[in-house]
């Protein structure tokens, strides 16, 4: 019998925003004139629940490769996420740093798509993000490897419990790494209950951003 437990990551509780479409900066009449303040306005503030995003990399076989990661932080210009140096995504990024991100809000309200370049953050930045992770995620970064994945469940549970006892305050493992995505394109999508959805696109251009209104 399965036992229902609360989520150990506490990342997926972002609420649907309440949108006033008459004044919304994507629906107009006054449009946002730069992407960063709008992204800042949409994304959770420091201390709030983290959002999830789909991270697409260019696979070494040429196919797109996607997975869900947590948005650790938006620093006003770059989207940060953290991962394991042994992962497929890191191998992809070392060969080609071009990425796309999709962030989706509940209840068909908003979507943000970003294309950009992902570069590793400094070890200090990565350690700082590690310290802000939940105890579950700090431990996961240590024990979530291929050897562990191949063990039977009972052995994995025992290792998990043993690690927590032996390392109540773990430091980041050597395999912990952070990346920051610097966008060259943002696309903000906002729904509307009584009109077509609409997108506002910003493409980085010499001296600023080129803005376009697109169909939803
Ligand atoms: C809700 C959720 C959140 C996740 N957050 C992360 C994360 O922040 N970092 C990460 O490396 N993997 C995260 N994962 C696991 C990834 O989706 C993926 O399975 C793993 O990183 C291996 O991906 P790769 O083989 O493409 O590198 C998360 C998965 C889920 C379902």
Q: Helix count?
A: 6
Order of helices and strands: HEEEEHEEHHHHEEE
**Radius of gyration, in angstroms, nearest whole number:** 19 Å
Shape: elongated
What percentage of residues falls in helices of 4 or more residues?
A: 10-25%
Question: By helix and strand content, what is the structural category?
Answer: alpha+beta
**What is the averaged pLDDT score?**
94
Distance between the termini: 44 Å
Strand content: 25-35%
Name of the level-1 CATH class of the domain at 35-133 and 174-215: Mainly Beta
Would you identify the regions where 5 or more consecutive residues have pLDDT less than 50?
A: 1-7
**Total strands:** 9
CATH superfamily grouping of the domain at 35-133 and 174-215 = Electron Transport, Fmn-binding Protein, Chain A
């Amino acid at each position: 019998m399965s036992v229902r437990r609360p989520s150990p990551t506490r990342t997926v509780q972002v609420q649907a925003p309440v949108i006033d479409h008459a004044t919304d900066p994507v629906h107009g009449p006054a449009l946002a004139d730069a992407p960063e303040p709008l992204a800042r306005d949409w994304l959770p503030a420091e201390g709030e629940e983290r959002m999830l995003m789909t991270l697409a990399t260019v696979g070494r076989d040429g196919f797109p490769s996607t997975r869900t990661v947590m948005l650790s932080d938006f620093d006003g210009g770059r989207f940060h996420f953290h991962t394991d140096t042994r992962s497929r995504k890191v191998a992809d990024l070392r060969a080609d740093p071009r990425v796309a991100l999709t962030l989706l809000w509940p209840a068909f309200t908003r979507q943000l798509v970003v294309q950009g370049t992902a570069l590793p953050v400094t070890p200090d930045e990565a350690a700082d993000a590690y310290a802000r992770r939940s105890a579950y995620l700090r431990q996961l970064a240590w024990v979530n490897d291929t050897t562990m994945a191949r063990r039977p469940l009972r052995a994995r549970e025992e290792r998990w419990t043993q690690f927590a006892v032996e390392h109540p305050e773990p430091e980041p493992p050597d395999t912990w790494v952070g990346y920051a995505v610097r966008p060259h394109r943002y696309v903000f999508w906002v729904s509307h209950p009584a009109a077509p959805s609409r997108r506002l696109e910003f493409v980085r251009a010499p001296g600023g951003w080129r803005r376009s209104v697109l169909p939803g």
